[in-house]
Amino acid sequence: MHPFVEDIKRLYSDGIVISVAGVDRVFHGGLLAFLADNLAAHLVGGFKENFSFALRICRSCMNTRDQSQTCFLERDCVLRTAETMCFIRWSIVYSLFHLIRNQTTLYS
After folding, report:
1. Which of 16, 78, 94, 106 could form a disulfide with 62 if both were Cys (CB 3.0 to 4.6 A apart)?
2. What phi, psi does 18 have (nearest 5°)?
């Protein structure tokens, strides 16, 4: 994944040159969305890739590891909502954007 992330950083900072109607133009870009499973998303985001020590281990509810040992039915759990998931995802996107934007060199 490292080459992919570095290519996205380079596209954002340096851009690519494309000839349009005989005129070379520089286009910059970035990553708007990234679809992945938990491990790949954490790898790209630079987060912990091992979930065995995560506080909230379920992607559907807010249960902790201890709570998951006694709560087996959905009606007994506090479910994650679209609002909480949207907040979490935007927090990650915001963090990644600022990490890329504030990068002083492409290859550190």
Report:
1. 78
2. -130, 135
